[in-house]
Amino acid sequence: MVHRESVHSEDRDILLICEPVSLDCDSNVDLAAKGEPLSVVPDLEQYRNPFEPDLHWELRRKFLEQHRNKLAEDELVSLSQAFVNVEVWGAVYCEEMMARVALLGGTLAEEFRNRKRQMTQRITVPASQAAVDWVHQVSEGQRRAERRLQAAEMLNPVFPVTTVADVFRNFVLVEDNLEDSKLHYEALNGGGFVYDVRATADPKQFEATITASGLRLSRVVGTVRKAKQRCREEVLRLVRQKCYKIRTNPNRCWYSCNVERLPSEQNVDCDGNPFASRWQAPPKPFQSKDQLKEDNVGYRMLKKLGWGGGPLGKHKIGIVDPIEVQAKRGRRGLGLPQPTPAPAILSLSEASNFPLALNYHQPTPVLDLGTIPFQIDVNFYKDLIRNFKARQIGYDLIFSPEFTDLERTLLFKLASEQNVAAGTVSYDYEHYQFMLPRHRVPPHELLVKILVEKHPIYCSLYTVEPPEAGEDGRERHNKVLELCSR
């Protein structure tokens, strides 16, 4: 006999049609008294209703599979339907039924609720707009992409520049530095900032003006020095009020690093190959006029230590001849320092590429890195620098201070081979860290990444401040926020 039962939901009443079920909360029931268990049924698809959605049937199927060996068929099918009604539609039964459903579907209900939270949030649109989108087969995802594209267009610079408002739209004040921001503006090829000082009828007074793309932004009359200073201050005040401002978040910790020193299992050369493989060829024959004789005391001592002749060292790459005594030249005493050559003079470009850790007062000898064994994973750092360049990472790579001077020199060599800028930083002038500076993004691209795309890395690195004055700037910013929030 079919039983009809009306249950109450939060916003509407639902009429459920189900078989009468027992309200016994004990799951260990006598299956023989209530029919065969569901485990004897090979296919559960026969219990699916013709118009049941996939999501509802997936939840009910898990309920059936979890309790198919515990409950009788009629009871389990009815309980599964009640469970779906409670979780999906928010139906409410009597206290005994709700307790039974909660007991049997505890874990499944928690998984379904977590999954529901991660689903795409419901978006409410006007009925007329929904009808138009349905007729033209336009999804909400396409609408959202169009809105983001429209917001990005509102942040991009405009060409040609015809009004002062266009100048303020194209100008972005970076780090509150007018000179650097002026260079970014000129890179847009929309004109440049021009400082002009002209004499007036009064020989003690001069007229200072600043123009951008041929449009005058400021004009001050006074002495040469004061006129230029006040004119610059006036332009800086205007761009602070009417332009976007980007600041770097002061979250740099000089004691931190994001690249650790990765040691290798064996010594490798500067190319990442095993170091011993370079010396597998037979060593050079021992040919020296200062060869030790067999009756020499030093020769007998080395023989007892395991020396078999030839170069010293584990890899047979050490010295061959005995240490020669250098003859003393000059009349200086033994305790006095010897004269050193004059310091080498490097050009600005050479000095910028020179490691700070190796910048001594005397010329640094040129090292042949191919003859030095390294105990770091060279291949890993080669791939790291290559990927850093290819992906245009938006944050600095700070290497651990545990790297030695020679290892930092090798990192400079690897970076120069990939044509990647590199530098050295120090927090106490004693511990130096190798650094790969982040990819510099133009200001207008930063605005799009932070305000429109909400890129997590750039949002953590920079702070964007909207224009404070000017109707055009404020309205444009509010429109961008509105388009990105819908």
UniProtKB/TrEMBL annotation:
Pfam family, one: G-patch
N-terminal signal peptide: none
Taxonomy, superkingdom: Eukaryota
Ranges for domain XRN2-binding (XTBD): 44-128
Organism: Culex pipiens pipiens (Northern house mosquito)
Name of this protein: G-patch domain-containing protein
InterPro entries per UniProt: G_patch_dom, XTBD
Domain G-patch intervals: 294-339
